TrEMBL record, chain A:
Spans traversing the lipid bilayer: 6-22, 34-55, 67-85
Organism in which the protein naturally occurs: Xylanimonas protaetiae
InterPro entries given in the database record: DUF2304 (IPR019277)
Domain of life: Bacteria
Keywords: Membrane, Transmembrane, Transmembrane helix
The keyword Transmembrane helix is annotated on this UniProt entry: yes
Name of the featured protein: DUF2304 domain-containing protein
A Pfam family assignment: DUF2304
TrEMBL record, chain B:
Similarity-based family: Belongs to the glycosyltransferase 2 family.
Protein name as catalogued: Glycosyltransferase family 2 protein
Superkingdom field: Bacteria
Provenance organism: Xylanimonas protaetiae
One matching Pfam family: Glycos_transf_2
Residue ranges constituting the Glycosyltransferase 2-like domain according to the UniProt record: 11-168
Amino acid sequence: MSGYWFALTVAIVVAVLLMVLLRQRRLREKYAATWLVLAVFVVVIGAFPDLVAWLARVVGVETPSNLLFAGALVILLGVCVHLSVEATTLEEETRTLAEELALLRADVDKLSSAASVPAAPAPVPPAAPEA
Amino acid sequence: MNPSHDLRVLVVLPAWNEAAAIAAVLEEVATTLPSMDVLVVNDGSTDSTSAVARATGHATVLDLPLNLGVGGAMRAGYKYALRQRYDVAVQLDADGQHDPAAVPRLLAALNDGDADLVIGARFAGTGTYVVAGPRRWAMRLLSSSLSRIVGTRLTDTTSGFKASGRRAIELFARDYPAEYLGDTVEALVIAARAGLNVTQVGVEMRERAAGTPSHNPFKAAVYLGRAVLALAVALTRPISRRGA
């Protein structure tokens, strides 16, 4: 019986943590949505374990917990792929910004030297990307 | 012989930590190709590449705030060429491997042959550049596949020595892969699929002016794998329509 309360508690803690992160703007809604839906799902299953047993019979899985594990793996894989896609998008956006920044800096250099402002010192070598 | 008579040509040198070589290369380009503008794309170097290049007074320097790789640096270069309305952009390595004296021949091929993209090829009968082992197999495989895709016989598809005409500049300013090998292999596929004419001209390849090349059997095998992956991805990629 203690296992039941333990699982339920973990699910609720995760859901609360997500809400806190969201409210602090440390987590964007588009990422949190997945986790929140999952957390609610886990809470429901935790509260009514018979649901899983029923679902396992319907799908044809012998041990209900295996259905849960398999499902969890697939969902986590999906989330990881989604995050990789997001990271790729971000890299492309960073790349475009870097290009625009470099082009702008070249324009500014040209303008300021054309305006015969006392020659600006050569720009400091670009700093290492921030972590 | 002056095929570049009324063309505005930009020589683009992507440079990453090339402080040791770049001054000599820029001097040579300025002497050999006095009529052309030169752009150094400093690809987030951690050494004094940018300052050294500026100090020569022969080049405009584009400082990328972070390291994007050759492909990333070149897209920035193509964007610059597009916005400054250049007719031709010539890519030249900043380490001195490419002989600037060959540039007029690339330009001639661009004009005469009705081509949009001309590759300076190392294995086209000129020069003595030799590659052995898996790296050679990879290059062979790439060459034969890409020749079929492009519709012209290409012998050196991983050459970074290229002259791009207006259509190629427009295309590459928008779509130029930053992936490994993307700047050579995939760029050719992108050009071919966009209907650009690609040809090659034999060039001589020289020793690097500074630094050491990174060749060993393991790396060569990895190179083969990545080359095949790059080709497969490039060929199956949906053709980009944005901003067309």
